[in-house]
Amino acid sequence: MLLLGAGVALSAVFLMSQGGTVQPSSGxxxxxxxxxxxxxxxxxxxxxxxxPLPPIPGGGTLAVYTVPLDRWxxxxxxxxxVPFMVWSEQFGGVLTEKGASESIGSTRLIASPGRNAELxxxxxxxxxxxxxxxxxxxxxxVYYAFIGYETRN
Length: 153
Fold this sequence. Notes:
The chain is mainly beta. The chain has one helix at 2-17; strands spanning 37-42, 61-66, 72-80, 85-91, 94-99, 102-104, 107-109, 121-123, 128-133, 144-151. It contains one helix and ten strands. The strands form three sheets. A four-stranded antiparallel sheet has the order 1-10-3-8, with no helix packed on it. Strands 2-9-4-5 form a four-stranded antiparallel sheet, with no helix packed on it. The longest helix has 16 residues, at 2-17.
């Protein structure tokens, strides 16, 4: 009986020692390496100073970032300074709306940090991240910003 108890205890110690950090099945580590992080911020005329950003015509777009040809971009947090703006992807002549950022307090998030933060809006290699003005009249964004990461195929 003592031998059986010792065997169970040794088995439990062995199994516990096999624990560790579980990596996603796709083989890339989380969080992404610093060199893969993309942070775009354009202050414009935020807080009443700086150079105003150009107005975006009604239904028009403003190019914010071009994704490298050998990378995918995932945006996990985005902000825009005008309620009429929608984050979109321009690719091959087609505009695909990704969505508007959602306010949580003073931060606008796509995915909550610590809870599936690797999920977000995905942009294809060679595509352009744009802000689309959904208003029928010209609007100038006060500022815009996003943070995300790039991955290779």
